[in-house]
Amino acid sequence: MQVRSSQSNFRQSLSDAIVRGDLNAVQDAVAHVSCDELSSEGLTPLMEAVRCGKQAIAEFLLSKGADVNARSKSGVTVLVFAASRCRPGIVEALLRRGATLESGTFGNKSAPDAAAAAGDWASMRLLLQARAARRDLAQNAHSI
After folding, report:
1. Cβ atoms 122, 130 nearer than 8 A
2. H/E element holding 78?
3. What integer pLDDT is reported at residue 1 of this predicted model?
4. What is the pLDDT of residue 61?
5. How far apart, in Å, are the Cα atoms of 75 and each of 68, 81, 126, 127?
6. What is the chain's mean pLDDT, rounded?
7. How far is CA 103 from CA 33, 111, 116, 140, in A?
C-alpha cells in the first residue's frame, strides 16, 4: 500500500508542477512516474500540459516518450484535446510525432472538427495539411 501511495504522491506532484509551469519539477517527477499515467481526473501529464497551455512542458513530455495517441479516461485523444483548447503549437508538435488524425471523441469529432468548433483556424490549417500530406503519402505508396 505504501508503494501505491508513494506513486500517487509523485503523480500529484507532477500535476502540480505542470499547473505551475515548473519544468524543473516536472523533470524531477518524471523520473518517478510514467509520462502516460492518468491523473485522478483521467488525464495524462501531456493532456494536463495542453490544458494549462504549457508548450515547453508538453515538448519535454513528448521528448520523454509520452504517447501522442493517448486517450483520457473518457476516450478523448490528446490531439483532439489540444485542437479543442486552441493550442496550435502543441498540435504541430503532436503531428510531427505522428499523432493519429481521425480518432477523437468530444461527440465523436476528429481533431480538425474539434479545432473548427473551437475557432482555432491555425490548428485546423495544420491538421488539414497533415491529413492531405498523409493521404498523398499513402496514395504514392500504393502506386509503387
Report:
1. no
2. helix 78-84
3. 41
4. 97
5. 14, 10, 23, 20
6. 88
7. 26, 8, 16, 23
Report yes or no: 32 and 41 within 8 Å, Cβ to Cβ: no
Question: pLDDT grade, residue 91 (50/70/90)?
Answer: very high
The HSE-up count of residue 120 (CA atoms within 13 Å, CB side) is 25
Contact 83, 51 (CB under 8 A): no
Cell of 89: 503549437
CA distance 15 to 18: 5
Assess contact for 10 and 29: CB atoms under 8 A: yes
% residues pLDDT > 90 (the chain): 65
DSSP state of 119: T
Look at residue 109 and give its three-state secondary structure: strand
- As to burial, measured by CB atoms within 10 angstroms (0-12 exposed, 13-18 middle, 19+ buried), residue 15 is buried
Minimal CA–CA distance to 84: which of 46, 61, 110? 110
pLDDT digits (tens, 9 = 90+) for 8-66: 788 999 999 999 999 999 999 999 889 999 998 999 999 999 999 999 999 999 999 99
